[in-house]
């Protein structure tokens, strides 16, 4: 794997491992609670597993074969919480693939809150609950909007902590 790819992959994984905050997301979906809850996986049928069960590099390579993503997109996601072009569906489908391989998103496109917490992607299922209101569109878009919401929360929380240190 090229050094630039590995660095961006590590940044993405680092971001995934540290993501969570209590600040709100900027975009909302006016769907009802029942509709949002329908996006969640049943914890009894989607048990959480630890990160040791995964090879992040293998997941990245497998998803990138089908949904080739530019390092610029991953870098932008790491730096800002969103892709530079939110109309391009290929990077969104890469995120869906990545989250499915990590079992944060199930094969039927439900969100496994317990897995997200077990992997350290979020500190609590409350973050997932809060981000559900952003999940609109097709399965790739929903996966990306989930990643964007969680990433943005992490970035805002990180900036807040940095400003308190000064």
Automatic annotation (TrEMBL):
Transmembrane segments: none
Keywords assigned by UniProt, alphabetized: Secreted, Signal
Similarity comment: Belongs to the PBP/GOBP family.
Cited InterPro entries: PBP/GOBP (IPR006170), PBP_GOBP_sf (IPR036728)
Top-level taxon of the source organism: Eukaryota
The protein's name in its UniProt record: AAEL015313-PA
GO CC annotations, alphabetized: extracellular region
N-terminal signal peptide: 1-24
């Amino acid at each position: 794997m090229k050094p630039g790819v590995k660095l961006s992959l590590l940044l993405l994984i680092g971001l995934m491992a540290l993501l969570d905050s209590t600040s709100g997301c900027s975009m909302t979906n006016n769907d009802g609670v029942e509709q949002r809850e329908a996006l969640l996986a049943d914890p009894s049928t989607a048990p959480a597993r630890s990160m040791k069960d995964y090879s992040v590099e293998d997941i990245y390579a497998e998803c990138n074969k089908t949904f080739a993503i530019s390092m610029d997109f991953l870098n932008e996601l790491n730096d800002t919480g969103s892709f530079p072009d939110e109309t391009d569906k290929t990077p969104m489908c890469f995120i869906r693939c990545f989250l499915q391989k990590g079992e944060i998103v199930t094969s039927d496109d439900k969100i496994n809150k317990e897995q997200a917490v077990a992997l350290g992607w979020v500190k609590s299922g409350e973050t997932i609950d809060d981000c559900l209101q952003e999940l609109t569109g097709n399965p790739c878009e929903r996966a990306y909007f989930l990643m964007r919401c969680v990433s943005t929360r992490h970035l805002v929380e990180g900036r807040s902590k940095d400003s308190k240190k000064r």
